[in-house]
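Worked example

This section walks through a single chain of length 421. The input is the sequence exactly as stored; nothing has been trimmed or padded.
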Amino acid sequence: MFGWEFPPHILGGLGTASYGITKGLATQPDMEITLCLPKLHGDEDQSFLKIIPLNLVPIVWQNVDWNYVSGRLGNCMDTQLYYDLRNHIYADFRYRLTNDLGCIQFSGEYPDNLFEEINNYAIVVGVVARQQQFDIIHAHDWLTYPAGIYAKQLSGKPLVIHVHATDFDRSRGKVNPTVYGIEKDGMDHADCILCVSELTRQTVINHYYQDPQKCFAMHNAVYPLEEEKRKIVEMRKPFKDKKEKIVTFLGRITMQKGPEFFIEAAKMVIERTRNIRFCMAGNGDMMNSMIELAATKGISDRVHFPGFMKGNQVFEAYRDSDVYVMPSVSEPFGISPLEAMQSGVPSIISKQSGCGEILTNCIKTDYWDVNAMADAIYSLCTYEALHDYLQDEGKKEVNQITWEKVGKRIRKHYDRLIQNK
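Given that input, the structure is written out below as tokens.
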């Protein structure tokens, strides 16, 4: 399995989903999972899988398939770097790419030279694929698709790719042609495409021209709250005892997540009542513009920007929240509403969210309909009976959506691919 991030070091939903999927798969009989990551930090949970940090894998450059590099990855590589590798100028690429042990260095994040790191990831995977014994290749998101293709070419094993998002979701339609090319290449070579929602599956079929027979919706899930997190959310102050209510947006503050619609709705609610505060937790390239928008709307004293949250901080935010809002313009799935509902926070999600396909005990509005969003926020903060109903029923619903069930469904696809090989 090829991934890019893993808890507790996560920058978005991809790491959370990768953890849930691997842990759910680990409950299946006769299942051994080896997860390749760019690098490790040392505090990852490896009790149910083996993790290979690619920054510790020595490279033997003579074994690199240069036709593959030039044909599939070369268009993303720095030209001079490619020729340095091609010509085996060892002193140069050891200086530029590897340490004294002959290992490529990775940032473990999403750096400015991301395409170069994606290429390097695939090169190291070529070494790993020759050494490991495996039955299935499973690649998460476009960052690892080139590695998945390379491993398939070297081993002949079936390739499963997991589409957590597409560039159509991240860019609001302004697709990066290089990213699109990597995504489509991965899909073209995949034997099975798992999509986090039917919404994403239709994008894969209609915009990447894939065979519907090899595309399957595979919705995400949540794990029961760990004792520490459960104790945090159980310290919630009763709704009826709170003089001020708190409405929370928690996620990347980027155009995909529709943060401006959250601010617009907040303005409308504040015009009706002053006993509600709004929290926009997270960071992203639109954070400064959202701070400016709140100031322009005259509500900066009611809108708070605490920054990026992780681990227990997320559940402390849920504990203090009365309503959770996810106004995403295009959300392939969206795990955060499930976590919020699991923590006892009634949620409002956009109809353009994949998680809406499996959730019923929440309020759904179009992302652009800020009037409906504002009405929903006001109602949940004002009417105790409505708030308590969605709080209780939302918890019950989400508790039935488990990663073990997801793991069982994925295992069936694995078995089918192996039988048809």
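What to look for: The chain has a mean pLDDT of 90.
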